[in-house]
Amino acid sequence: MERQSKIDISGVNERTVDFVLARRALLRAFGRGEVLKTEICDAQPELMRAALNLGKPKSSICPICRDTKLVSVYFAFGPKLPAHGRCLNSESEIDSILSRHIDAKVYEVEVCLNCKWNHLDRLLAPFVFGEESA
């Protein structure tokens, strides 16, 4: 589900795709027993390192273990960035990537440092007037 937003990260207007509906559906399936905990609490070691060292605390508690606050980790991908992407650790880095690289996309992933729950939260992409591609 894509929605036009006016989020302002240091003056950069971007287009945001929010994955809240996919998250809700996955959590419902988990609650009904259709998805195992091992299938959704599977953060890779590199994601866990990034979350531990660069994660930005969120106000929400993990929906799986209900014990730990979640953190957000940001990754940037684009033609002028490393093939494996780049982990971002500040709003100024997000601002810089989105303002300098028209084709860049920044992914926000929520992670639980306790049970390894992880889910794609949002996709941020530069908004270019007159272009409809996200």
Highlighted features:
134 residues; alpha+beta; 8-stranded antiparallel beta sheet; 4 helices; 8 strands; disordered N terminus; disordered C terminus; DUF5318 domain-containing protein; DUF5318
Q: Helical stretch count?
A: 4
Major sheet characteristics: 8 strands, antiparallel
Overall shape: it is globular
Strand content: 25-35%
Task: Count all strands and give the number.
Answer: 8
Residue-averaged pLDDT, rounded? 84
Distance between the termini: 12 Å
> What are the secondary-structure elements, in order, as H or E?
EEEHHHEEEHEE
Residue ranges: pLDDT <50 for 5 or more in a row? Answer: 1-13, 128-134
Structural class, by secondary structure, is: alpha+beta
InterPro entries: DUF5318
Protein name: DUF5318 domain-containing protein
Organism: Acidithrix ferrooxidans
3D structure, described in words:
The protein is of the alpha+beta class and 134 residues long. The protein has one domain. It contains four helices and eight strands. Strands 1, 2, 3, 4, 5, 6, 7 and 8 form an eight-stranded antiparallel beta sheet that branches. Strand 4 (56-61) and strand 5 (69-77) form a beta hairpin. The protein is globular and about 45 Å long. The N and C termini lie close together (12 Å).
Question: What would you say about this model in short?
Answer:
This is DUF5318 domain-containing protein. With 134 residues, this protein is α+β, with helices and mostly antiparallel strands. 27% of the residues lie in helices and 34% in strands.
